[in-house]
Amino acid sequence: MKNKVAYMGVFLALALILSYVESLIPFYFGIPGVKLGLANLIVVIMLYAVGAKEAFAISMLRILLSGFLFGNLFSILYSFAGGILSFLVMWLVKRTGKFHVMSVSICGGITHNIGQILIASVIVETYSIFYYIPVLLIAGLITGMLIGVIAGEVSGRLRPEWFH
Amino acid sequence: MKRRPGKRDLLLIIGLLLVCAVSAAAVYFLQSKNGAYAVVTVDGSEYGRYDLSKEQTIAIRKDGIVTNTLQIIDGHADMTDANCPDKLCVHQKAISKSAESIICLPNKVVVTIEGGVEGNFDSMAR
Ligand SMILES: [Zn+2]
After folding, report:
1. Whole-model pTM?
2. How many inter-chain contacts (A to B, CB under 8 Å) are there?
3. Ligand 1 ion: nearby residues, β-carbon < 5 Å
4. What is the mean pLDDT of residues B67-75?
């Protein structure tokens, strides 16, 4: 059990590094606060190599900490909406056992952005935000694909028994 | 874990690409007309609508304080100044096509272009 605390810490640190990298990229969708979701890489790897509970815990902790470190109240709200929705969808798609990690990750990337846009439309009380959907869908598809490739490689090399 | 992507994965990705293409086409079509008005909403309710053919500077006030400054020049609406911390609305480019928008999240100010007659599509067809 001592071991578990150590590797959970490593995963959290890696996820925070990715959030930091993301905060440095001047990538702007036209909607304030909307992010690419690079830290999803750690969530996908953990979902396959460790377990759903652990992946969800790290995802939520990462959002809270990176929000305080590199963001603001709005970005925390967006990230929670994106993070929770994408986790649920990825977990469900993976559970069917019919899809490759790449598809799971792509579904995560897209729903991450959909979650953010839904919260954004509630906050600014406007539908004009929905015109950003194509950009966000395509961005989610591309990030999801990249994350899927890397996560597939990494989680294939990790042994589940290391973490239990 | 599955080793390689299979037929289901391919179908899923093709389906998602189709959704992307259709939504992109829909938005492109909806935003192809030159707009007539810049409609400003603050906290979700309409604050005012301004003719894009008239050059003007609009000071958007909230509780007596100017939060955002909108400028209309050459049929384009541009956020030129704001008191929000991120200034992301100021960095957005000027808008002129119907349904385009500039959003200032911290101040909850949204500028949307509305109305207007045939633009791009018609001139392209000719
Ligand atoms: Zn602003």
Report:
1. 0.81
2. 93
3. B 82, 84, 89, 104
4. 95
